[in-house]
Amino acid sequence: MSLAETLRQILSAYPTPSELGADEQARSVSNFPELQKLISETVPAAIQSALADQVDGEFEIAGNYGQGTLAHIPSIAIFQPDETDTTKRGIFVVYLFDPVSETLYLTLNQGATEVDQISGQGFDPAPNDILDRHAQLYRDHLPTDRRFTAEAATLSTELRRSEPYNHGTICYARYDLDDLTDTKQVVTDLTWIVSAYETLLDRLYNWPNLELDTRDVVLLTPPSEEAWFGWRTHGVATLEPPEDETQGSLTQEQIHTFEKVISSGDVLLAVRPGEPAPILCGIGTVTVGHGGTLQSEVREQVDERFGLTEDRFIRCHWASLGEPGVPITVVGDESLQPTAPLRQLSQSLGQRTLGAAARRMAVLKGDVTPEDVLAEFLETLDLPTPSKYSPGDELDDPSVSPSAPYYWVDQTEQSEPDPTAILQAPRDESPAHDLMKLSTGDTLIHYEDGAIVGYSTVEGAAYYHRDAQEREYRRVETAYQAFERPIDLAEIFRTLRHRAPSESDLYPVQPNGVPHDGYLYNLPENVGTFILDRGRAAEGGVKRLQNRLQTPSIEIDLNALPLYFPGGEEARLERQIEAALSSGQHLIFTGPPGTGKSRLARAVCEAAQEQATEEWMDGYTFTTATAEWTTFDTIGGYVPDPESESEQLVFDPRLFLDCFRAEDGTLRNRWLIIDELNRADIDKAFGQLFSVLAEDSVTLPYKQNRETSKDLRIEWVDETTPESELEAIAVNQDRYPVTPAWRLIGTMNTFDKTSLYELSFAFMRRFSFIHMGVPEIFIDQEERIVGGDLLNPAMGPNYATVWTGDDDALWAVLSDHYAELELIWAIVNKQRSIGPAIIRDIAEHVAAFEGGDRSAALTSALVNLVFPQLEGLRLPDYQEFRDDLETGGYVQLESEDSREPIDLAVDVDYLWRTAVDMFQLQPDR
Asked: Which segments constitute the AAA+ ATPase domain (predicted)?
């Protein structure tokens, strides 16, 4: 028998109230066994069969014909278990039989008993009004079909419970006996309304779509209405033993959760038991957890009449849902009905509860929308608002992790969308999903199932995507290039671990492998370039080497430097530097301290790099020599392998070798600046480099790994080196090629009698020495006359005009004290030459000096900045220095015959005492 036939049989056979009469014995359900079987067994089975091939999902089907006596309106309901299992609450599909008019209604309906419960809580709208408002709200989320009417049903009024069924109807299809002969239409209607039922629930359940991040959602049960009023009044929540034994007892696990787990920002649902639906008293957010709440202080504030007996409080903001609360139907894998004083819930149930509460309160208020109520909730509770994006919209989410030169994307678990064309990660706060930090042009390394398979370039900004389950994602489109041969992770694992940054939380290669729970990782530049170079193989190595075989010709322009060179010194230096570099020589800049040697060395390298455009130069390294240097610092040596559990040693290339090969093995030509070169013991630190500087090759007493058989070599290569040899060197990471394009640039001060090493002639002949001196300050040393034109900003160009720029304070000091500073410079230079940088330091010291007079500022500057340069003078030299400061001098005026005395405002006595103490002078002996 078909579904339509069984429905028609029930409708035609079911007695009306008048036919049953008032005799309870005549109305007993036991008198109608055939109807019982049709309603409870035959029709549910037919419905199950009809839906099996048409609708996904599982449903519960229950027929009702009354208990004891026959019901006026028999019904057969279809429940989505996640929504309800009874017609008392929630939303359901139900066949309603009207025996008076011989009409059958297939309805999408709602539980009226729950609405009666709401009215019992003291809310103003009548039960039928509540049903009508909810029905209208639900209709806004329904698809449409011409067979169904989106209005209240019209069951005969003489039928008991017809009114709540009619007002609870969201939509219906109506059949008379003749309509129930069309079996196909009956099944089609049933399939449509069940699908519409699922669509409605899906839309209701997925609103609002909040971003709760890591917030916990916790259900707390106030033991009484008075306790809830206390929570709301004082902005607190407590953990109290339940009044009802069916809710169990207070456990240590619940106490631990309340005191240790619940923290600021977590969401609280204050729920009391109720039938048929639990009563949601309020929704809250924790402002201060138990550990931060002063328990005794709260206890003193809480009114005793609320019956809060436990001294266990947290502070909260509460959004109230009426005085005693409102019944809410929210079910699923977990129920909102309290079964314990405290229960942790899923974020999904928490969001579903917020949505249900917003809809219910909108219905009860009557003049607002659920969106209005939700916005009020979120503002009160300081919760994030739902997503504002549609699929495809460009996102403006903030990045939650630092950017990087390169990125690693683990596409092992991604099949859809194509991981080589679109990156996709959940729209959450996890740094491993942070696609927002990607910019157009960024490079990504693609990893899949144990191998690095290729790389891609970001082609646009991150945009919004939402899947069929309403899960939110970020997407980024890329242009992908596969490696001809994927790189097995095992091949380069040790290298990748060796290069792991110190802050490695976002680094993909951990000691135990690649994590399986991440997606996007950061790669430092050296790792990214290593992988790319490895993937592209060594095909470019020979070309890189050939580009570096010629001696470069470089033009030096010192005008761009923040340095001043008096008397044509600038042109002389430019010619000397250019000639030395073009003839294949290395450089050493010599001169007094403060003459700009280090700055000039950097400028030479930067000029070379700019003109090289990476064709033959790969930047430069700046370092300062020390007396402790050995070949371990300059060449390298054995160190424990950080990736080996044994005590295996591996070779660690250092300063010089790093100039010729990058850490990933890529050939390079990186110039080297060694500041204060003669502080190192040259033979001890540079011995093996002598041969290379003399254009010879040298074999080092090291191996990359002690288990290999090949010694490391520093190879001199030039245009005479055969191409086959160049190819062999290019692909062999044990060979470090030095080319004619490489330069070593050193600096050294021209004096240091106590701590510096002498440079051997063997070392010096490999360099061109360029001296950077200081100008003559005295124009008449015997008369102690200075010119005043080197430091006076008004007489530029000179040192002062180069230094000051926009620095008004320095300009003022030089304008007022240029003559004194110039005389001090001249007096110091009689004993020990110093460069203009030290004079600039003195001027800046005076400009920054606070308190005291001009004498205090200049005296302080001399002690701090000049005295360290005077170490090692003889006693007569110190005495002469003192006498010169005391005597003062003159500055030449515009007329050659006129001059003006300079009274040095320094405390000479203090300076002498300081010198005696600092330099251990013995003036009385």
From this structure: 583-778
State the average pLDDT over residues 217-245: 88
Cis amide prior to 417 (ω within 30 degrees):
yes
- What's this model's pTM, rounded to 2 decimal places? 0.47
Question: What six digits make up the tokens of 354?
Answer: 């917020």
Which secondary-structure segment (H or E) carries 623? Answer: strand 620-624
Helices marked H in 140-208? 162-168, 183-205
Q: E strands along 352-471, which residues? A: 406-410, 422-426, 443-448, 451-458, 463-466
Maximum Cα interatomic distance, the chain, rounded to a whole number of Å: 143
Tell me the chain's radius of gyration from C-alpha atoms: 44
For residue 431, is the peptide bond before it cis, meaning its omega torsion is within 30 degrees of 0?
Answer: no
* Per-residue pLDDT tens digits for 765-782: 788 999 998 999 888 888
For residues 471, 472, 474, 478, the Cα torsion angle rounded to the nearest 10 degrees is 40
CA-to-CA distance for 689 and 514, rounded, in angstroms? Answer: 41
As a whole number of angstroms, the distance between CA 840 and CA 799 comes to 9
Q: Whole-angstrom Cα distance, residue 741 to residue 718?
A: 9
Say whether 175 sits in a helix, a strand or coil.
strand
Over pLDDT 70: what percentage of the chain?
94
Of 153, 155, 47, 152, residue with least CA distance to 99: 155
Task: Give the three-state DSSP class for 49.
Answer: helix
Q: Which residues of 345-372 are buried (b: 16+ CB within 10 A; e: fewer)?
A: bebebbbbbbbbbbbbbbbbeeeeebee
Closest CA to 237 of 268, 271, 273: 268
Burial class (CB in 10 A: 0-12, 13-18, 19+), 272: buried
Distance CA 224, CA 308 (A): 9
Reported as a single tens digit per residue, the pLDDT across 558-591 is 887 888 888 888 899 999 999 999 888 999 999 9
Q: What's the number of CA atoms in the CB half-sphere (13 Å) around residue 247?
A: 24
| DSSP state string for 800-853 | HHHHHTT-HHHHHHHHHHHHHHHHHHHHHHHHS---HHHHHHHHHHHHH--SS-
Contact 463, 395 (CB under 8 A): yes
Residue 575, both tokens: 């010619």
CA distance 622 to 405: 22
Q: Return the ∠ at Cα 449 (arms to 494 and 641), rounded to 5°.
A: 10
CB 134 within 8 A of CB 359: yes
Q: What beta strand segments (E) does 28-71 contain?
A: 60-64
CA 175 to chain centre: 61
Cβ partners under 8 Å of residue 839, min gap 6 = 594, 791, 799, 821, 824, 825
Report d(CA 916, CA 913) in Å as an integer. 5
336 DSSP β-pair partners: none
Beta strands in 506-619, from DSSP E residues, in sequence order: 520-523, 586-591
DSSP letter at 750?
S
Tokens encoding 516: 């399986």
CA distances (Å), origin 77, targets 44, 132, 169, 179: 9, 20, 13, 20
Q: Looking at residue 96, what DSSP letter applies?
A: E
Q: How far is CA 310 from CA 220, 240, 242, 304, 374, in A?
A: 14, 6, 12, 11, 32
Q: Judge contact between 621 and 609, C-beta under 8 A.
A: no
Return d(Cα 521, Cα 432) in angstroms, integer: 6
470 Cβ neighbours under 8 A, 6+ residues apart: 202, 206, 209
* Domains of the chain, each with CATH number or no CATH: 3-205 (3.30.920.90), 217-381 (3.10.590), 406-537 (3.10.590.10), 558-770 (3.40.50.300), 778-918 (no CATH)
> If you average pLDDT over residues 389-399, what whole number do you get?
87
Helix axes 127-139, 347-365, angle to 10 degrees: 120
Report residue 491's pLDDT band, with 50, 70 and 90 as the boundaries: low
